[in-house]
Amino acid sequence: MAGIHECLQKKRDESQKALTQAESHVNTMLSRWDVEDQYIAQAKSHFAIDNQEFINYREAHCLFVKSLGASGIGNALEIREYACIAELNYRRIAQLREAVSQFRLK
Prior knowledge:
The protein has helices at about 1-30, 35-65, 75-100. The longest helix is centred in the N-terminal third of the chain and has 31 residues, at about 1-30. With about 110 residues, the chain is mostly helical. It is built from 3 helices and no strands. Helix 1 (about 1-30) runs parallel beside helix 3.
């Protein structure tokens, strides 16, 4: 079970790093977006709120998923949580990529 735990811990960490990079990419794309500055500022403000809401959702959802393990033995509960975090992070990355994929840039 320790091997699975370490693997999923690594996947969680890798997904978090990839998510941070995706968020940075979105901010770069927003800065280069070919629209008036007021719309860029508005989108960046909403993106910051969106990021915080995603974190809140991910924490709540993965705690719920973890709790479904009831009295799991050993690292079973953490394994459930790590897998959940990685999965949601990768889904979020895909959503962010899609959101800015059609931008016209300056």
